[in-house]
């Protein structure tokens, strides 16, 4: 029997490189708290808005101050507002003049609050992005950051009225044009997004990054894997997936999550369970990080690591 002194020495633990964070804690504060004072009250009318913290995290991770960011489906201008507050420049495009007018007003509000970046917004079809930006683009974009619509009807605004049920408004996009992605059928939406991504690639610099928030959804109890469909469409546009992250829609407090689900998200799950479908409430957005295939092959982007 060998003594303790005869045992081989334990190997000295070696320090490990810090693991890249693929879960973004972007709902530490409610969506209302994130927007209050930073965005005009009229912004609440948009039926589907990106969380400001998601935009901030992506911009801080993938760009440096002074670089250009483009959002081809800008809505109320969340990407642009967060970009100029972080000292970046931004151009937003949207099909509906109602939202580009509001996005421009939000940018003016940001400038009045001391934002140092320069932002501009224009109305048009994002599939024609290169021609739309031809006279406005003084350099290629370092980042394209956007969130597509998931159909004509979304959660919107609601109010419980005793004896009259729940009143709902601002729950659909107004433009009826076929160019409006919100009007595209489930099977056609990925191809339409692919057209926009192909246009985005033309205004992106060679080492630039495209970040798109997506999520799966159910239609008549059928799962639509939209993130996977967008990934395939991006490949047709010459962009490949270099990272897939989770942007939380719930707060993190120690070892637990703080739910921030909407009334309708909870109702949809309860209704599904009543029909025997064991669903859970979705508490995150899928974040797809894409790069031109030639760049990703030559020098892959470090996983969710901020550029230094």
Count of spatially separate domains: 1
Principal-axes geometry comes out as: globular
Q: Roughly what fraction of the amino acids lie in strands?
A: 15-25%
C-alpha Rg (nearest Å): 22 Å
Structure at a glance:
With 308 residues, the protein is α/β, with parallel strands linked by helices. The protein has nine helices and 14 strands. The chain has a single domain (21-148, 196-294), classed as Vaccinia Virus protein VP39 (Rossmann fold, 3-Layer(aba) Sandwich).
Would you give an account of this structure?
- Helices cover 29% and strands 24% of the residues.
- It has helices spanning 31-35, 52-62, 78-85, 97-112, 129-132, 189-203, 226-236, 263-274, 293-298; strands at residues 23-24, 68-71, 89-94, 119-123, 141-146, 157-161, 165-169, 204-214, 217-219, 222-224, 239-248, 251-253, 256-258, 284-292.
- The chain has a single domain (21-148, 196-294), classed as Vaccinia Virus protein VP39 (Rossmann fold).
- It contains nine helices and 14 strands.
């Amino acid at each position: 029997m060998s003594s303790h002194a005869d045992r081989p020495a334990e190997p000295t633990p070696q320090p490990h490189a810090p693991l890249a964070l693929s879960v973004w804690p972007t709902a530490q504060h409610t969506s209302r708290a994130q927007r209050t004072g930073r965005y005009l009250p009229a912004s609440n009318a948009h039926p589907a808005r990106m969380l400001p913290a998601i935009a901030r995290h992506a911009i801080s991770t993938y760009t440096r101050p002074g670089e250009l960011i483009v959002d081809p489906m800008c809505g109320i201008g969340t990407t642009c507002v967060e970009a100029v507050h972080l000292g970046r420049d931004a151009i937003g495009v949207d099909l509906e003049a109602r939202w580009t007018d509001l996005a421009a007003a939000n940018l003016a509000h940001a400038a009045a609050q001391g934002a140092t970046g320069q932002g501009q917004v224009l109305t048009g079809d994002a599939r024609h992005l290169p021609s739309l930006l031809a006279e406005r683009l003084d350099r290629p974009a370092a980042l394209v950051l956007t969130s597509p619509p998931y159909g004509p009807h979304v959660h919107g605004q609601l109010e419980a009225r005793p004896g009259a049920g729940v009143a709902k408004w601002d729950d659909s996009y107004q433009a009826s044009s076929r160019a409006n992605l919100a009007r595209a059928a489930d099977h056609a939406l990925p191809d339409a997004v692919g057209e926009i991504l192909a246009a985005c690639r033309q205004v992106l610099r060679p080492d630039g990054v495209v970040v798109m928030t997506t999520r799966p959804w159910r239609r008549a109890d059928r799962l639509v894997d939209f993130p996977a469909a967008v990934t395939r469409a991006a490949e047709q546009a010459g962009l490949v997936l270099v990272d897939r992250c989770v942007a939380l829609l719930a707060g993190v407090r120690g070892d637990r999550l703080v739910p921030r689900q909407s009334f309708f998200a909870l109702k949809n799950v309860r209704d599904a369970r009543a029909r025997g479908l064991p669903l859970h409430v979705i508490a995150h957005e899928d974040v797809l990080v894409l790069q031109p295939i030639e760049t990703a092959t030559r020098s892959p982007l470090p996983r969710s690591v901020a550029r230094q």
